[in-house]
Structures are given as C-alpha cells and as structure tokens.
Amino acid sequence: MKTLTDLIDKLLQLLLIVLSTTIVACVTWQVFARYVLQSPSSVTEELARFLLIWIGLFGAAYAYRMGSHLGLDILTNRMKPVNKRAADLFSNLTVLFFAAYVMVLGGISLVALTMDPSQISASLEIKMGYIYSAVPISGGLISLFAIEKIYMRLTQPINTAEC
C-alpha cells in the first residue's frame, strides 16, 4: 500500500504543479488582455475559477498526506503516548468518515446531478459535472491516505518509556 500511496503522491505533486502553472498563465493573460489589449477574456476568467477549485481540492488531499494541514496540537502535545495515539486515531477516523461520506458519496451525487440535466459552463461550454468531479476524486484520495495513516498508527508500537 505504501508504494501505491507514494506513486499517487508523486502524481498529485505533478498535477498540482501543472494546475498552478496553468492558473498563473491564465491570470497573467487575463490581466494583459484587460489592461493592455482593452479586451478581457471571459474564457481565462472562468478557467482560472475552475482551476482554483481543483487546486483547492487536490491541494487539500496533498496537504493531508503530508501532514501539513492546519491543526491545534496544544492539547495533544501534553498527552501521554497512549492518549495521543487514541486522539490521532479518532482524528483520522473522522477525516475518513468525512472524506468517504461527504466528499465521495456527496460528490458523486453532485456530479450526477449536474451531468444528467446537462449543466454547461458559460464560456468554456463544458459540463459542470467534469469540474465537480474533483470533489469525489479528492475525497477518494483523502480516504485512501486516511486508511494508510490509520493502518500505520495501529501497527506502530506504543512507546511505553514515555508513559
């Protein structure tokens, strides 16, 4: 499982680099077209908005994998290792529940809702379901990463010397 998540991690890094580079290019073109050419581009404005959605969702999955999400550890830093482990397991189980139930199942419902009576974006004229597909995909990634963290935490021995 570790090799699979490491591969997904590398692909996620590459995807975020491509998305970030593309949004910078879009916004740069938008500013140039608006102020120099006096003709703003609605296509790049909409594309930048959609890219920001994808960067936010896939960036959240990547941040969770790296353990760099914002967190308050003032309470857990004072806990004994056994209690810290229980708090970490509870935290990761909560993330797993939210990602699987809200993001994956809710995201699939959202995609289906916007694909069936075909909701089309104004400028790019693509189905909004494709844009919203980032929700269940990133939820699936977060779920996978949560399962890995839970497994690693359960198989890791408790350091009883600190108890």
| End-to-end C-alpha gap | 31 Å
Number of helices: 5
Low confidence ranges: none
Portion in strands: under 5%
* Main structural class: mainly alpha
Total count of strands:
0
Report helical residue fraction. Answer: over 70%
What do you see in this structure?
- It is a single chain.
- The chain is mainly alpha-helical and 163 residues long.
- Helix 1 (2-35) runs antiparallel to helix 2 (42-66), helix 2 packs parallel to helix 5 and helix 3 (81-115) packs antiparallel against helix 5 (134-155).
- It has one domain (2-162).
- The longest helix has 35 residues, at 81-115.
- It starts with a helix and ends in an 8-residue tail after the last helix.
- It has helices spanning 2-35, 42-66, 81-115, 128-132, 134-155.
- 74% of the residues lie in helices and 0% in strands.
